[in-house]
Write a structure and sequence with these properties.
- The protein is an alpha/beta fold.
- It has one domain (2-139): Rossmann fold, CATH 3.40.50.720.
- Helix content is 44%, strand content 12%.
- It has helices spanning 2-21, 47-67, 93-103, 112-122, and strands at 30-35, 73-79, 134-137.
- A three-stranded parallel β-sheet has the order 1-2-3.
- Helix 1 (2-21) runs parallel beside helix 2.
- It is globular, with a radius of gyration of 16 Å.
Length: 144
């Protein structure tokens, strides 16, 4: 559990601290991480990851507060279920995929391109007043 918490949550804080100390994050810099709906939903077999994702979201809010005076934003993406190599390593992923495909409002899973396109838009320097939030990129999946 400690390793999962360090890798999936605490590393954001350590990484950010190192970059700030090194002067590599300047006004207008943006920090993004990846969370999941498991941060606020009970998913069988997901316990340590669920706790880590909840902590990651808390770290996101705290870092956003602490870095706002420096003009640095911190947000986390919550992508919908996405068929990636990592997803395919989850035991029972086939059942999860079938479930999402039948219930999803748009009848498809989130694609990596959905997340990438959102990231590109949010990197626009005109987008400055968003920090400390979970950005859902799931086509409404978390509502089902």
């Amino acid at each position: 559990m400690e390793m999962t918490m360090d890798v999936m949550a605490n590393s954001l804080v350590y990484w950010t601290q190192d970059l700030v100390r090194a002067g590599l994050l300047v006004k207008g810099a943006k920090i993004f991480s990846m969370t999941s709906s498991g941060s606020h939903r009970v998913i069988s077999g997901y316990g340590p990851v669920s706790a880590a994702k909840a902590a990651l979201e808390s770290h996101t809010r705290q870092l956003a507060l602490e870095l706002a005076p420096k003009g640095i934003s911190v947000n986390t993406f919550q992508a919908g279920v996405t068929d990636t190599p990592a997803f395919r390593m989850i035991p029972g992923h086939e059942r999860v995929k079938e479930h999402i495909m039948t219930l999803h409002p748009d009848g498809r899973m989130t694609q990596p391109e959905d997340v990438a396109q959102t990231l590109v838009v949010l990197m626009d320097p005109r987008v400055q007043w968003m920090t400390g939030t979970v950005i859902r990129v799931d086509g409404g999946e978390d509502n089902i």
